[in-house]
Structures are given as structure tokens and as C-alpha cells.
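URGENT: need a sanity check before tomorrow's submission.

F., can you look over the Arsenate reductase record below? I want to be sure the sequence and structure line up before it goes out.
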Amino acid sequence: MEIWINPACSKCRSAIGLLDAEGASYTVRRYLEDVPSEQEIREVLGRLGLEPWDITRTQEAAAKELGLKEWARDDSSRERWIAALARHPKLIQRPIITAEDGTAVVARTDEAIRDALARS
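C-alpha cells as predicted:
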């Protein structure tokens, strides 16, 4: 299991705390420092069953500068969104946990974290 975190994020710190309390074995990826490639983002999206706009933090300054709220959310725009996430990793929703069964969750709630634990 791997968890993508921003250490400054309270949701990320809470997720790590719950994983530790549950005795989970996991790897931490500080995705702002170890930025995921476009391919890695595609793979995580596949595991999540989501589209890139579903995991984009549209309130971030970079999102506003890029005008993301105005971007189309369709198949022809998918690669544009993925490229933006790879260039501006702060836009990626956090934390993301990749489970052992090949799935992933956006772990913003205790329920989502426990769901990922149940899959591992």
C-alpha cells in the first residue's frame, strides 16, 4: 500500500495517524517532491475509477491561474487535465491510497481509509 501525501495537509496527517493506529504497512510518497508522471497519474486514475477533474483541487491558486473551472470535462480534454496535474502536483487531491488489490481511494475520510485497509 502506498499513500500520496503533502505533510502540510491535515487530512494527510490524519490518514497516516489512522494507518499507524491500525498497524498498516505502507509506503509514503510525498508527491510534491516525488512528482508523479503523467503515466502514474493515468494508472492511479484507473485504480480510482475516476477522471482527472475528479481529483483536481480547483480552489488552488494554480487552478485559478490555469482557468481549470472553464476547461471541458470530456474524453478529448482528459490528457490536458493529466498534463496539468503532472506539471502542478499541488492540484492533486490528497491523500490517495493505493491498495494491494489494485484499487485506490481518495482517503479524505476515516471510512475511505478503512476501505483501503480492507482491500489490502
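My own read: The longest strand covers residues 2-5. The CA atoms of residues 38 and 86 lie 6 Å apart. If you see anything odd, call me.
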